[in-house]
Amino acid sequence: MANSTKKTNSNTTKHLRRVLEEKSTELRAHMMTPETNALLRVDEEIHDSADLAERSHETWVWVTKNSFDVMLLREIEDALGRLRKRSYGTCMDCGRPVAQKRLEAVPWTRYCVACQEKQSPSMN
Ligand SMILES: [Zn+2]
Questions:
Q1: What per-residue string of b and e applies to 74-104 under the rule 16 or more CB within 10 Å gives b?
Q2: What's the gap in Å between 85 CA and the centre of ligand 1?
Q3: CA dist 98 to 20, 83, 118, Å?
Q4: Which tens digit of pLDDT belongs to each residue from 62-109?
Q5: What is the 38 CA–ligand 1 centroid distance (Å)?
Q6: How far is the CA of 116 from the centre of ligand 1 (A)?
Q7: Cβ-Cβ contacts under 8 Å for 117 (sequence gap 6 or more)
Q8: What are phi and psi of 90, to 5 degrees?
Q9: Distance 20 CA to ligand 1 centre (A)
Q10: 16 exposed, middle or buried (CB, 10 Å; 0-12, 13-18, 19+)?
Q11: Ligand 1 center to residue 59 CA distance, Å?
Q12: Rounded distance, CA 65 to CA 36, Å?
């Protein structure tokens, strides 16, 4: 009870982590193909360019069908990574804390509202 502000923050973080983990599980279950994991690790694991070329057509077809989910899952995994590194909730552009409301609405966001608008000016 003595440290109520800190406690609220860590509870919120815990809550957001759970939201992210649930969303990640949901997306994985929804996509459930052997390609999913390979794709998510594509940067680290493919060293053979022939293998990559062979795979890339299938991957392309798959990504086209699932691009939104893949993108979202990557964002979520990234956010979970930031949670582990304790950089979660900090705008990756200006370095200021992202508003709590925004984190609750879009838990995987990387940017505060102002910076998000700079990132995608065509959206407005
Ligand atoms: Zn910012």
A1: ebbeebbebbeeeebbbbeeeeeebeeebbe
A2: 19
A3: 16, 13, 15
A4: 777 777 888 899 999 999 999 999 999 999 999 999 999 999 999 999
A5: 32
A6: 7
A7: 123, 124
A8: -110, 130
A9: 21
A10: buried
A11: 33
A12: 12
Cα 67 to ligand 1 centre (Å)? 26
CA distance 84 to 97: 17
For 7-61, write each residue's pLDDT tens digit: 567 888 899 999 999 999 998 887 766 665 666 665 555 556 666 666 677 777 7
Domain borders along the chain are: 1-88, 90-124
Distance of CA 33 from the midpoint of ligand 1 (Å): 36
